[in-house]
Recover the amino acids of this structure.
DNA sequence: CGCCAGTCCTGACAGC
DNA sequence: TGCTGTCAGGACTGGC
């Protein structure tokens, strides 16, 4: 499940492989992604014959900027964006292929079709600008986090998953950050003290930076732009560890469902 | 307007 | 062995 660290790892691994490269050909599968089918006319206009200028990231979105426009990309649950040799057999659920020089191509594969591949010319799509605070930016301060959380009565766990408040956290890193900060996931956002907000800010930054340092968490499908798995799954403290002893106090890790998502935490270390 | 439940989608896996 | 049912969750939609 690609969250900020996985998307950033994909971005970093793709950057040297595709920036300054020219897209010499385009292929699109007839399969539709759930949100929308990549528009063939726009694909041509935005990407064909274009030079790749940059690959940027905001939250869990990637933005490939080209000389003619670009593409807004989201990996959803199972999306992969990798550079392959042209002769490498196509995997099922390959949605887009962008041919590069030297017999290589950038492939977008997404079995569960929760992702997005939207070419554009002119204005960058609105989703890109609607995103909340970037937790890795200098501007992500305790005060900013507290302000964002005070805007909602929702449980802090659900608020942290709201991409318009803070962009990039998903279900895994939210559980990890709340554990590290000693904050109970069901605590309402409005009840987060300055002291707790400071701990939470530091914990969010720490788990995301650690995730990037470990090249992402590979529990199911996730791989980077070169097809390599990450190592961060070995460093998770609570996610997926229901019933196992807490690494801090030894109590059993608890799982509860919040917002139809599994939430892992330690009742002793994360008091309300 | 804010919140929440429901929805989509496929592969992996458990159980019979 | 082969089938069926359940589960995983990001982001959107519709109802209240």
């Amino acid at each position: 499940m690609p969250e900020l660290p996985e998307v950033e790892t994909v971005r970093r691994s793709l950057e040297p492989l595709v920036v300054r490269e020219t897209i010499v050909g385009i292929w699109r599968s007839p399969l539709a992604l759930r949100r929308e089918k990549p528009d063939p006319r726009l694909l041509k206009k935005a990407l064909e014959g274009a030079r790749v200028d940059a690959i940027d990231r905001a939250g869990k979105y990637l933005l490939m900027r080209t000389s003619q426009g670009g593409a807004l990309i989201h990996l959803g649950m199972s999306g992969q964006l990798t550079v392959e040799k042209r002769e490498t057999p196509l995997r099922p659920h390959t949605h887009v292929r962008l041919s590069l020089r030297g017999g290589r191509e950038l492939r977008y594969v997404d079995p569960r079709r929760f992702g997005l591949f939207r070419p554009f010319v002119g204005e960058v799509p609105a989703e890109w600008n609607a995103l909340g605070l970037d937790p890795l930016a200098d501007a992500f301060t305790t005060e900013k986090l507290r302000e964002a959380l005070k805007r909602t009565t929702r449980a802090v766990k659900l608020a942290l998953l709201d991409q318009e408040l803070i962009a990039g956290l998903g279900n895994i890193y939210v559980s990890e950050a709340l554990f590290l900060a000693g904050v109970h996931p069901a605590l309402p956002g409005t009840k987060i003290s300055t002291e707790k907000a400071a701990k939470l800010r530091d914990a969010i930054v720490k788990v995301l930076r650690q995730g990037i340092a470990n090249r992402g968490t590979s529990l199911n499908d996730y791989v980077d732009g070169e097809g390599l798995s990450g190592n961060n799954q070995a460093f998770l403290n609570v996610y997926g560890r229901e019933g196992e002893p807490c690494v801090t106090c030894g109590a059993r890790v608890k799982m509860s469902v919040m917002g139809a998502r599994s939430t892992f935490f330690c009742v002793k270390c994360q008091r309300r």
